[in-house]
Amino acid sequence: MGIDEGCREELGSLHGIPLYKSFIEGWPQVEAFQARHDDLLIATYPKSGTTWLSEILDMIYHDGDVEKCRRDAIFNRVPFLEMKGAHPTDPAPPGLLPGEGLGCPQVIYMARNPKDVVISYYYFYQMAKMHPDPGMLAEFLEAFMNGKVAYGSWYEHVRGWWEKRQEKQLLYLFYEDMKKDPRREVQKILQFLGKEVVEETVARILHHTSFQEMKKNPAANYETMPSSLMDHSLSPFMRKGISGDWKNHFTVAQNERFDRHYQQHMAGSDLCFQMEV
Ligand code: A3P
What we know:
The chain is mostly helical. It is built from 12 helices and 5 strands. One of its GO terms (molecular function) is sulfotransferase activity.
């Protein structure tokens, strides 16, 4: 059984990266994907703000028209290239592998600090039934640190894309910056896209893409997914939307171990993360 049946199963492996088997089956479609000159790729490691960034971009592309952005669920408006049966005709599909741009002329990457990512991912593993059972948090932390979770190593992903900055038109954003000053980050996106919008539109985009609004918006909060695939009673997709929630979950010992591991794996990189805002 695969993702469509909503039954937990072990991950497969694609080029050494753990991934849902049904996405691996759909991979030839990703390889065959031909980018148009005006395509934009959203690339993220899971739980880093993919849905948030997708909603912001859909609002920008629709000039802040809230009704148009309710036309369908976010995963259909901004499809995942690797999802079987996705029709990548919209301009902003999220990407998959570290540093792969699929020939898209423009890429926006969004990164989030790994401590919040792993906690968000742990809850997501519980509610989204395409994942194997995550077990206890301690176990899941180990799996995450070793890159043995869906989409592989967080370190390779964030570092791979960080290094791509020189070569291509790539805007590298951080979840924490977006939390701190969403207006400034939306302005950065607009500038990157070469779009000018009036202040009133910016205000509408910011309001519509706030956590509170997205949490109650069925077109953004994943509630339209069958509950056999995502069980929001276990943990809502729009869970907390904050930075620093890891502090409510990590033990002191886990935090120390994580910090050591982080330092080893980020050595030699000028990429820095804010663990809280
Ligand atoms: P938490 O589980 O920490 O709450 P992705 O879309 O990449 O799967 O990421 C999901 C994470 O982004 C979840 O984090 C979710 O709550 C958070 N998120 C989604 N929309 C958000 C928004 N508008 N503002 C802040 N966080 C948001």
